[in-house]
Amino acid sequence: MDFELSEDEGALARALRSICANRFPLESLRSRELQPDTVDRESWRELAEAGVFSLRTSEDGGGLGLGAAAVSVVFEELGRALVPGPLVASELAASIIGMTGGTEGNAGSPLPAGGPLPAGGPLPAGGLLAGQVRAGVALVGQIHLGDSWERAGGSFPGSGRGRDGILVEHLASLDALVVVSERCLQVVDPRVVDAEPVDRSLDPLTPLWRVARLPEGEEVGGPEHSRRWRSEEVLLGAALCVGVAAATLDMAVAYAMQRRQFGRPVGSFQAVKHICADMLVRVEESRCALHAAALAIDQPGVGDPVRSVAGAALLATRAALACSKACIQVHGGMGFTWEIPAHLYLARSRVLASAMPGAGELEEVVASRL
Amino acid sequence: MDFELSEDEGALARALRSICANRFPLESLRSRELQPDTVDRESWRELAEAGVFSLRTSEDGGGLGLGAAAVSVVFEELGRALVPGPLVASELAASIIGMTGGTEGNAGSPLPAGGPLPAGGPLPAGGLLAGQVRAGVALVGQIHLGDSWERAGGSFPGSGRGRDGILVEHLASLDALVVVSERCLQVVDPRVVDAEPVDRSLDPLTPLWRVARLPEGEEVGGPEHSRRWRSEEVLLGAALCVGVAAATLDMAVAYAMQRRQFGRPVGSFQAVKHICADMLVRVEESRCALHAAALAIDQPGVGDPVRSVAGAALLATRAALACSKACIQVHGGMGFTWEIPAHLYLARSRVLASAMPGAGELEEVVASRL
Amino acid sequence: MDLRYSAEEEELRRSLRAWLAGVLRGLPQKPRPDDWDARRRYDMGWQRLLYEAGYGGVDWPKDAGGRGSSPVEQLVFLEELQRARAPGVGVGFVGLLHAGPTIIAEGSAAQRARYLQPILAGEEVWCQGFSEPDAGSDLAALKTRAVRDGDDYVVSGQKIWTSHAQVADLCELLVRTGTEGSRHRGITWLVMPMDAPGVEVRPLRTIAGSSEFSELFLDEVRIPVANRVGAENDGWRVAMVTFAFERGTAFVAELLESMELMRLLAASAKESGIWDDPCLRQRLGSLAAELDALWALTRRNVSEASRSGVPGIGGSVFKLAFSELRQSMADLWMDIEGRSALVWGEPADMWVNSLSRTIAAGTSQVQRNILAERVLGLPKEPSTRTLEG
Amino acid sequence: MDLRYSAEEEELRRSLRAWLAGVLRGLPQKPRPDDWDARRRYDMGWQRLLYEAGYGGVDWPKDAGGRGSSPVEQLVFLEELQRARAPGVGVGFVGLLHAGPTIIAEGSAAQRARYLQPILAGEEVWCQGFSEPDAGSDLAALKTRAVRDGDDYVVSGQKIWTSHAQVADLCELLVRTGTEGSRHRGITWLVMPMDAPGVEVRPLRTIAGSSEFSELFLDEVRIPVANRVGAENDGWRVAMVTFAFERGTAFVAELLESMELMRLLAASAKESGIWDDPCLRQRLGSLAAELDALWALTRRNVSEASRSGVPGIGGSVFKLAFSELRQSMADLWMDIEGRSALVWGEPADMWVNSLSRTIAAGTSQVQRNILAERVLGLPKEPSTRTLEG
User: Fold this and answer.
1) Span(s) in chain A for CATH 1.20.140.10
2) CATH code linked to domain A225-368
3) Do residue B3 and residue C379 have CB atoms under 8 angstroms apart?
4) Is D373 marked active-site?
5) Tens of pLDDT along C232-248?
6) ipTM of the complex model
């Protein structure tokens, strides 16, 4: 047993951190705030080329053949850097549908990597995925349709239906849209979706569209794929949350060292120290839970994947929400200005949490596996 | 509107505090720890003579004719002083059954004030209560029998049934035992109850008996009395809780001023200050909620008595439990010694909370009245 | 203790209710949050209506042009306004609740004559220039300098968190006239006309995306010495004196609005079916119980203020508890809305804004220190004592 | 990252399991908590059995008579002991986990020869004389004085929170040999025989009513200079060196026991029907998820210790989180028991004892300071820095 990051995993994390620092520096992200297209396709291509979306694709299939643990390490970095875009669905499309090789008949028509979709005509659904995912540059979004996660009263997780109808993230940037239902996975051409942009989204880097009518798509996976999709998207979401929590801890500590009040750094006050210490506990706990959950998927027998994924998601969403809030508190008045990016993490935490089952549901899952 | 304590109410509180300081100093209470009889009948008589159990009895009936507000002020003091004994049931017996004048036929046989019950023979139930309560010295305990408060699984509040069967407090000291059920109130002679003492009780000042068999008693009140009993015992319990919380705040502050660590009083450290400040918030909130609930009973139209009593009970039990715990924390290692009385408040908080509906049930009541 | 209102208080309630029923029908539409000129017109128009009906300064003393009502009467006034969903104090806030009361208490006869009536009549808008970028929770560290030059002070520096500066006519300004390091002892309170040369207003965007606050840049602004309220270097005391004017009613409108929100959330949860979730019901019940307790605490504070003239300890207790409660309420609302909460709207706005509550006007950390030191009597931290001495 | 155990680790598990299955059948009954002589016999008897089977000091180095196992192997060892419900370390705690490792690291050859083997073989019981009434969280303030007199130190003072002093043969003692005010720099580490004249043990009753701890009163106790471990005035460092020996496994037994308790609570709630309450289920689920996370954190700490030899930051994080979690678990248990919890028993005992967790071995307040300062690098408080400098 060795639960420390292996050399390869450490190298992967460092590589991603460096790509994010180069391609997604906060200043350049912020220049796209509140715009309908917050994803820079060139940077996305670089992520793809670094293997972000093909980590779990088999080596035969052009991927790296790694496991959930490696992906959770990578997604923590993406969360930490606030990388905008349909990260989770794009990875799942590669690792789940990509691995199926797409639906029959379309597999032979891959699209040019990173290029626009051919105008008009029917969507080469499975082929699009199989092709582009291998090339690793497709932006794939998702929608959840009424399944067991749907809650009475409208709100429903995944990119789902709320009081405002179904909301989809990043629609204008997407190459493909996966519709997830209990029965199957379908792929829809985002250009034929009847949707209107939301006036203002809570997260300035996650634009939203309200879907009025969703056309029938091409089926690219059955109930087994659906189940896997829904379970693994929770793991990836948890990884992004851990990254968000870790980033806000770093920000809070840096500010507490530099900002002075009452003649000394605010970080020397016990009250501020204790806020930071509690953040640290949340980050460490949720990261360890995340890695244990990923290994429970990768290594049969080391743990209960259902229980540990639910537990990791519970702690990670809590950590992201609580730490991003605490980060604003440590920043005092400055934390309440748009200029300081603390609020971007807060908003992102909500976006990520809203794509998960609620805390009560996750707790029920854990309790049911005791 | 004037929500400050009136002069009379202030005088009542001061009088009680002084009686408690004289008759129930902590040292003398502590000499009775873990004994089967923690109630000193002489001191109890002094409480009774000060009107503690006849505050709400009409002036015609020999009482003071005051309302729930006055009783809540008095019971806060009793809670603060950790006065042991069946305070709540004794007050309710006076204000609820006493007011009925007892059952027919027995009203004319009051017992000598404070004296023992006549040995053997049938119990002059209503008469006992009517007589002794007027004299104000009866020690009246209570038992709750399976009503809507009973929870599946055994635990049930009031002096009720748990995994260990029905537990009664202070049985050996009682003059009468009121059995509360949904249908009626009955009085039972405690000497004919088949019960064995519990080896060790959580609260060293609240001895317990496990009841094996409970004889049928004399009916002294109908469903209306039962309902009132159960609602008002929650208010009185809340008042005791507020007192416990207030006492632990005082103790914690006094210790924090005197104890030095790292060359300064521990109370000068932010971390300790913040614990104390949070205790203060709980005490003030729960006391205001308590008084508002009492007035909602006394003054029709000023509030919803059901909602406000439930809310006050919720905040007061939380305050007692949280503050007594925080008090131990502020005392550090010393708080963990038997010698320092902090743990007595902690144990008493549990005793009081266990006589209330659970937090979830109280929250449901409040929510249902929104 | 008596929670019943007296006959006079009930009479005030009846007449207010009648007046509100009439006047509210004629009100124009509420302006958009970022149309500052319209907001000024709307809020000042409403203040004018209150003034003409004799409600212009309910809590102000009669000799200052107010109604001289007791704190309890003021509570009735605020309850009725909230019940009728009347407009709030809006951009009149600083004038009516802070600068005005300061001038009432500490201003000269001439200053009272000049400044008070226009506040009551809805003619002049005030803003507050207290906080600075490096003097947040530690207000005594402020650096904006005022140098005496003949009959003027020449003021340079920077202020932050100034509400509705865009439409303000006057600013209550704290400046340093003492030496650097003089802390509380070298501060002076001035009235600054916002159109004075050298005053620059830069709206500050908050995390809610709003422009409620601004930064003020002051570059050699000349302010007549006659505009000084109180003595030179005595401005800290002058600024603090207003807190004595606060009679426990500062948060009444928001508290009542919070209680209304709980009812709405319960109603909407019943409609949508999520009311079937007992954990949600219990969260709601718990928050409602705490709101009820804070409403009781408010009535206690107001009663104490009616007797003693000052609100006592309850105000600090209230602020600490209410700040955290608003955050919990907002969290609950966001959870109930689920995915819909990602569209910017009322829940998101409340959620994001609730975060400023544990920061603004003294962080919750500072509030806890205040409660511990001033109410419970715990000793100050050695280092802070040395600095504030 | 790899959570699978190696073939060697699995082999250790198999042989341990086989041995435990046999040996546990022959164990006498567990003594009552207040029968100290019986407890000593029981715990030392068990240690003797472990020793004879080669498990006497799993984590001790081979040249000190131990098994020299890796932290991961130690984890396997602790897991299997817990799984088999084997006895805990009991009164052997201080010798095996603190005094022994200190002597291994800092003792002379003669001291190693004299003290180590009797610990492993279950022959000598140790206790710890570190805390004092006025030196709790601030251990460096200790006052017990040792004055050199020929070949002896003469020691007078008072110690508190000494576990199982009633049955201890030896005491690891911290005394002040430096000047008053020398803080960390004037402390010396001594081995004190408990039967030395002048040593008085007074059991201390805790709020749980137990006699686990005692006060030690030392009145001119003569301790040979030969009993000093490390140099004079270097005792602080000597005492701290043991922390490096801690490999993240200190709380493994309790953590595993906590996870077992969650299973039992769930099972009993299902049986009694309160499992139908979703809020209870969710509270249980939330605590179980956090326990799972702490189990993951433990495996991370142990892995780190296996590589680097020291446990890293995880240990402090673990202690802070686990202390509060134990309190929440105990609260839940008490709530589930309801009225029955008023009869003293396991839930009450856990509930009351859980309160010491945020106090003992550094209050949670001190733990947070440590995390903030040593892990996150936040500056020390000025006053504390001056004193500890």
Assistant:
1) 225-368
2) 1.20.140.10
3) no
4) no
5) 999 999 998 887 677 78
6) 0.92
